[in-house]
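As described in the Methods, two query proteins were run sequentially through the folding procedure within a single session, without resetting any intermediate state between them. The first query and its resulting structure tokens are shown here.
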Amino acid sequence: MADPLSSSGTQSSRPLYGGFTRFELELEFVQSLANPYYLNHLASQKLLQDPTFVEYLKYLQYFTQAEYARYLSYPAPTLKALELLQQDNVRQDILSPDMVARLAEEILLSSIKPR
């Protein structure tokens, strides 16, 4: 498979959206899902209950494949959030400040490496 971030190929062969490829936009968005406060915002806007948006979250699971996961800056929390968002109860529970705090703490603890 061709490198989705490669500059090879002509610009006209890859559609651009505001100067970015679709892959670059999806990469940016999927990484933002690792932020529990952003997930809370999406839930408060009722996006996590929109069937079209839920389908988009399913589509983004292609980032779980190694060939795409390698582009993630923080793969563990990003992929965990993507996995959790596949569950209806999580998409509802993220409105709770307690759930947001718990997820934020888990992400923080997972980023600390034992010495």
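Immediately afterward, the second query was submitted; its sequence and tokens are:
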Amino acid sequence: MTSWTPPSNLPDFVIAPICEAIDNMPPQHLLPPQVGEILDPDQAYNRLQNYAFSQGFCIVVTSRDKANTYIRFACIHHGQTTHNWHQLDEHRTEEGNRQKEYTNIRARGCPWQVYLSYKGITKGAEQKAWFLGITNGSHADTHDMVPNPLAYPIHAKRQP
């Protein structure tokens, strides 16, 4: 049984799937990330996503280096603005290339960020491992935690 307590405004039909998901998570995944945890990239993603689920937010991979020695994870609400990868017009017009005027913008400037670094276990050692580091472990009141973490598509897809 989980120690997670559902928010009072959460409908009853949503509580059971959330409790079931949290009960199926390893207990250490429900604890805040700690500097120096040794995890491979897949383990780190699952561990961080499980922690985020239990807290009411979601993580995304924001960058990784070409040498595959560094991966940065951030809250889905990171950044100040969204990227306009398709170079759409600012607003929808008849002649323009934007199809929707109102879209879901998640950028809230959240500073929560952790990274995974592949480095020597001890200084100068040939044996290497992936180490977890924390850039910023706070959301700094930039957004509310979501009462229903299944509202994030990433969390909904990860459930059996």
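Residues 2 and 24 are 9 Å apart (CA to CA). We note this only descriptively and draw no conclusion about the first query from it.
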